[in-house]
Amino acid sequence: MKRVVIAIAILALAATGISSATAAPKKAAALSCKATTAKPQLNPKDVVPPTKEMSPLPTTFTLVTNCGNIVIKTVGSKAPITLTQLATLAKAGFYNKTVCHRLVNSGIFVLQCGDPTASGSGGPVNPNWRAYPDENLPFFSPRKYPAGTVAMANSGPYTNGSQFFLVYGDSFGLPANYTIWGTITSGLDIVKAIGAKGTKAPLFNGPNDGTPAQTVGIEKIIVN
C-alpha cells in the first residue's frame, strides 16, 4: 500500500461518501514509548530470498517496538507465500531498528511499517528477491478490514515486498487489494494510541496522512 494507493483510497472514500462504515476509533489509552535508535536506513540488510515455503508456517509475529509489544496471530495456510517471505525477512533481522513510516487517521485508520528506508517505496534489496502474488484477499466481505487486521501493502497486483499495515480502526472503504496475513491479538491499544497522536511532516496526502507524530521503532520481530 504505497502512497499512490492510499491516495486513491482516500479520494474514493470522499467521492462515495463512505463515512459511517469508517468511523474514527474510540479514544485510545495512554501511550508510553521509550526512546529508540531506530531510524530510516540508507543500506537495508541484504536478505537472500526463500526457495520454498516454510513448514510449519509461523503462527505468531511479535513486533517488539519502543511503544510496547504488538502480537499478531497469522492466518496460516491461507497465506503461505506471504508468511514465508515475511518470516524470512524478520528472522534475518531485516526489520530490526526500522521505523513505521506512515499513519493515516481519517477515512481509513492504518499504521504502515516494513520499509527500512521509511520512504514509502523501500523493500528487499537482494537482486534475486521477486515480488510475490496476493493471497487471502477479502473479496466477499463488506467488512473487509476491521480493526486489528494486518495486511500487506502494495502498489498493485503482484507487488508485495516487505511493507505491511496495521489497521487500528475499522477501514471498510479500502479496496479488497491487500493480502490479509494476521490479526492483532495483543497491543491493538498501543496502535490506537499511536493513531491518536496524529501525523507530522512529511505529509503524503494532507494532514491526516503522514509520518506518525509518535516515532514508532521496530526493535525486532520475533517469529514463532
Automatic annotation (TrEMBL):
Stored PROSITE patterns: CSA_PPIASE_2
GO MF annotation terms: peptidyl-prolyl cis-trans isomerase activity
Pfam families (UniProt xref): Pro_isomerase
Alphabetical list of InterPro entries matching this protein: Cyclophilin-like_dom_sf, Cyclophilin-type_PPIase_dom, Cyclophilin_A-like
Domain named PPIase cyclophilin-type: residues: 68-223
Name under which the protein is recorded: Unannotated protein
Source organism per UniProt: freshwater metagenome
